[in-house]
Design a protein that fits this description.
By secondary structure, the protein is an alpha+beta fold. It has 2 domains: about 190 residues, BirA Bifunctional Protein, domain 2; about 40 residues, SH3 type barrels. Helix 2 crosses helix 4 and helix 2 packs across helix 5. It is globular and about 50 Å long. The mean pLDDT is about 95.
């Protein structure tokens, strides 16, 4: 396959409602209809997916709920997380352009404004043997929603940050263009991606409180390694954690 067969966001499929954009995009693969760059955007998602089996709740007609089909091209399986880094950077920089700063990537794949969640990313990979066939990149971003119920002080939207209302479909297309830039950059130079990711990593170099099992501890975030593990330092000793094994406090 040519490395850049289509620009990401081409074709752009717009739906009124769907259970999950990731499910819709994934279903295109066995039908032979999947192609690099296809974006599936919906105005209403009834069963949105979050990390580790959690649900993603989003008000109708208020936010970005989109899934993008990407063929990893020349990337190898061991580059799975640097691919995640490139996607996260594409989302972070897009949101940051409108929010005016303070947008960070919270490990493993959340988008944060200061200490509040503005969005999340869920990547589902299709791997056959040692061949990495497709990545289905699911992205949820809070755009115009202002009521988050029980999560009112933990979540935030672009409207709350800026005081402005946005056209979600137009923003979704722009998001695709931004991700395309970082995907091309990844194919050219993975080290640049890793360096940029760490520049925007939430709480990097800061003391944080984490919980593993019943144990709560204080440590310093130093980075994320190529395997996607969180790297911390406590009392001069380095520790690494897999995604899902620790909670932020």
């Amino acid at each position: 396959m040519p490395l850049l067969l289509n620009a990401i966001g081409t074709p752009f499929i717009e739906l009124h409602t769907v259970d999950s954009t990731n499910n819709y995009a994934m279903a295109l693969i066995p039908e032979g209809m999947a192609q690099h760059g296809t974006a599936v955007f919906t105005h209403e998602q009834t069963k949105g997916k979050g990390q580790r089996g959690k649900s993603w709740i989003s008000q109708k007609d208020s936010n970005i709920a989109i899934s993008i089909i990407i063929e990893p091209a020349a990337l190898k399986l061991q580059q799975l997380f640097v691919f995640n880094m490139a996607i996260a950077l594409g989302v972070q920089s897009f949101f940051n352009n409108y929010a005016g700063g303070d947008i960070k990537i919270k490990w493993p794949n959340d988008i944060y404004w200061r200490d509040r969640k503005a969005g999340g990313i869920l990547i589902e990979n299709v791997i056959q043997g040692t061949a990495w066939k497709y990545a289905i990149v699911g992205i949820g971003l809070n755009i115009n929603q202002t009521d988050f119920g029980a999560f009112q002080y933990k979540a935030v939207s672009l409207k709350q940050i800026t005081g402005k209302e946005f056209h979600t479909t137009s923003l979704a297309k722009e998001l695709c263009t931004n991700i395309d830039i970082y995907f091309k950059q990844l194919l050219n130079n993975t080290s640049v991606i890793a360096e940029a990711y760490h520049t925007h990593l939430y709480k990097r170099g800061e003391v944080v409180h984490l919980k593993k099992g019943d144990k709560t501890f204080t440590t310093v975030i130093t980075g994320v390694n190529e395997q996607g593990q969180l790297v911390t330092k406590q009392h001069g000793k380095e520790e690494i954690f897999d995604a899902g094994t620790v909670e932020w406090i």
